[in-house]
Structures are given as structure tokens and as C-alpha cells.
Amino acid sequence: MNISHLNLIQDVLDRAVQAKKIAGVNLLVCKDDSEAGYWQSGFADAESGRAFSRDTICRMYSMTKPVTSVAAMILLEEGRIDLSEELWRYLPEFKNLMISDGEGRNSASRPASRPILIQDLLNMTSGYTYGAWGECCPSGEHLTSDLINRLNEDVSGANRITTREFARMISQIPVSFEPGTSYSYGLSADILGAVIETVSGMKFSEFLKKRIFNPLGMDDTDFYVPAEKQSRLAKTYTCVEADSARHLEVFASPHLGISGEMRNPPAFESGGAGLCSTVSDYMKFARMLTNGGESDGKRILHKKTVDFLATARLRPPLQEAFDRNMEHLSGYTYCNLMRVAVESGRCKAITENGEMGWDGWLGPYLSVDRRNSLAIVMTMQMTGAGTTDTTRKVKNIIYSAL
Asked: Exposure pattern of 376-402 as b/e (b: 16+ CB <10 Å)?
């Protein structure tokens, strides 16, 4: 790897901070299971001047999903779950599934003709979404928005809606399409968290700690930030543009049932969005995947299971739906709660077929490329970020250095 070429990364990060696209950011790259470089820029707390650093704790949001996927794969390896098995066999409340029929909050519903399978949760083909984006959306999506609002209120107050109770609540909401017939990004991973609890007999967080976090030494990864670590938690920012100028404002509201302050253990441990971590901690997870399921002598998954993750593909009709919904991910498919590059020449940044990972609402980013023995982890805390132009620029530098 051309390490000197990676020096270009710092300028990209600095320019993003100076332009107020982000408040702060850091990036860690590992090649051949060794650190190739670390970079940081900007602030974890712009108001106090606290710099973004290696031990800055960030809300990972949807980068929780790859962790949930690995938890499910552990149970799959042990013969405790089956991808083709009906969800209701694990969570009986999903047996009488309904589907929205028509548009609008008051649209009717009817019995679904096919149950949700475990694979539908992993591939986002369950029919559950992240809520309504407009009045024309079907009734189930409006009810999903209402449920998310209830989660936000609960985590800020009573904190009584558990992961298992969440599953019971969403099971009463009609899905937006017949399971297995289309793709829609949504709350499937959160339902999978309840499946993992039921099958393992443990709280979701306990299973993750026992089977993933503790073996890998991920001591800063959890569903909350205890008092002694609160000083390391980054603030979340929103970019506001007014009068042709851009400035940043602190965002402190709960989102998707995740507390802004993350001070207390939540009752709802979101398999789709709930974890917080550091760039170094999450890299331990990334290295495990890059190394075929093992890191520092600790095996989490078997190599063939990681091969399965990197080679999984949506069926053609589902891929067409994904392509319509996720144009910014041209060249990728989506399986097992991760994107997987299948046509690298169509991707929006340089990559390799088989590269997999995901991003989060606040901009954290994971890339695992086993063919090149390359792992990339980036963290930032900017609302609505996902995969940013800064992320793509950095990725292009890294890949052109190979």
C-alpha cells in the first residue's frame, strides 16, 4: 500500500470541517491486519473546543445492523435459527400478519398471503419500513411513524418499552407489501433483535457482550454511555443553511427510539440503531470480518459464514426494488443487513466486488474488503449524513493507494 498517498486524507477531512459539512470526524484504516493510518479533524464538542479523538464515543445508528447480523449468524451456525423459517415460529404474535391495502392513513388492510421469514428480516424484505414520508403512504407506514414517536417519548421518560415489547407492538401494524416480494429499508433489524433474545434466552445486549464484544475486547461498545464515559461522548449536530451560509446546531432529541444523551441503559435495545462505539472499538469488529471471522485468536464466526455474507445476493426482482430505492448504492446489493458490492464499476466510489459494510444516520461508515485485506471505519455525528461526499473522497484515496 502506498502509505504516502494516504496523506491526502487529512486535507479532505479538514476541508469538510472548515466548510461546516461536519463538526468533527475520525478515520481508521487497517491493511493486512495492521494499522495503515489514523486521521482526525474538528470537534466532538464544538462549543467547548473538545477535539474529535480516537476515544470519542459516537452513536453508530445503522452501523448497529452489521453487529446484529453477526449475532444472527452465530445462531445460524449453531443450528438455532433457519433463514427459511417463519418469523412467527420464534415470535408467535406475527402469525396473523396483515398487509396495507391502499393509500393514506385510513387505508384498509387484509391478511398477508405469505409470512415473514427470518431471511426477510436480514434482507429488508419483510414489508416493514421506517414510517410514512407523506400522506399518500399506506396505513401501516403511518402507524410505524406513530410507534417510532412512542419509542422516542418512552426513552425520554418511562423507559418501559423493551425490545420484546417493541416486537409485539409492531406485529400489530400492517406491512407495506407481501413479505419477500420487494425491498424497503426499515425496522426489520429491530425485530431480529427480539428473535435473538428469544432464541438465546438472554437480553440482546447480554448476548452481544458474551458472544461478540467481550471476546473482541470492545469495551466502549454498548447501548448507553455510563457516567464515567459521558465526557467522551460526541455531540450530535445538524447542518443549517440560511442566507447562503452554513452553520451547525446541536441536535439533542431522541431519534428512532435512541436517547440523545444515552445516559441510561435503554429498555428498547435497538438492533437497527442502538449501539454507540469508538472508531478503535468498531475496528476490532471490522478486523474480525476481514480476517474471516477471527481476530487476535478469538473466533466469532467461521470462515464459510463470512464467505456467505460477502457473496449473498438479492433475487433479481428484489434487486430491482433495491436499485429503485437506493440509487446512491448503484453497484451494490443488500443482504444480511449490509451492502455488498456486486458490480464495482457501477459504484459511486472505487471499491472491489465483495466489499461489504454499512453506514449510519449520523455518518459512521464501515467497509470490509477481504480480497484486499482492507478495513475502513469512520465516525462522525451529523444528522442525515449516511455516506457523505467526504466518505467517498476518502475511500477513493484509500483504494487508489492499494
From this structure: bbbbbbbbebbbbebbbbbbbbbbebe
Angle among Cα 166, 154, 249 to the nearest 5 degrees reads 115
DSSP state of 76: H
Give the C-alpha distances (Å, rounded to integers) separating 383 from 10, 21, 249, 254, 362: 22, 11, 10, 12, 5
Look up residue 388 and give its three cell numbers.
457523505
Residues with Cβ within 8 Å of residue 89, at least 6 apart in sequence = none
Helix%, strand%, coil% for the chain, nearest 5 = 40, 20, 40
| Residue-by-residue DSSP string for 223-234 | SS--GGGGGGBP
Query: Ramachandran region of residue 161, left (φ > 0), alpha (ψ -120 to 50) or beta?
Result: beta
Ranges in the chain, pLDDT < 70: none
Question: Are residues 65 and 359 in contact, defined by beta-carbon separation less than 8 angstroms?
Answer: no
Distance, CA of 68 to CA of 65 (rounded, Å): 5
Contact (Cβ atoms closer than 8 angstroms) between residue 128 and residue 231: no
| Cβ(290)–Cβ(368) below 8 Å | yes
Rounded alpha-carbon distances, angstroms, from residue 90 to 85, 95, 128, 196, 197: 9, 10, 17, 9, 10
Quote the CA–CA distance of 189 and 87 in Å, as a whole number.
13
> In the chain, what percentage of residues exceed pLDDT 90?
97
Helix (H) or strand (E) holding 101: strand 98-101
* Mean pLDDT (the chain, rounded): 97
Nearest CA to 8 out of 394, 402, 367 is that of: 394
Q: In this structure, is the dihedral angle defined by the CA atoms of residues 15, 20, 23 and 28, taken in order, positive or negative?
A: negative
Neighbours of 167 (CB within 10 A): 23
Give 353-388 pLDDT, tens digit per residue: 999 999 999 999 999 999 999 999 999 999 999 999
Per-residue cell: 238: 445538524
Residues 6+ apart with CB under 8 A from 317: 181, 182
Question: Which cell goes with 125?
Answer: 424484505
Instruction: Record the pTM.
Output: 0.97
Cα gap 387→8, rounded to integer Å: 19
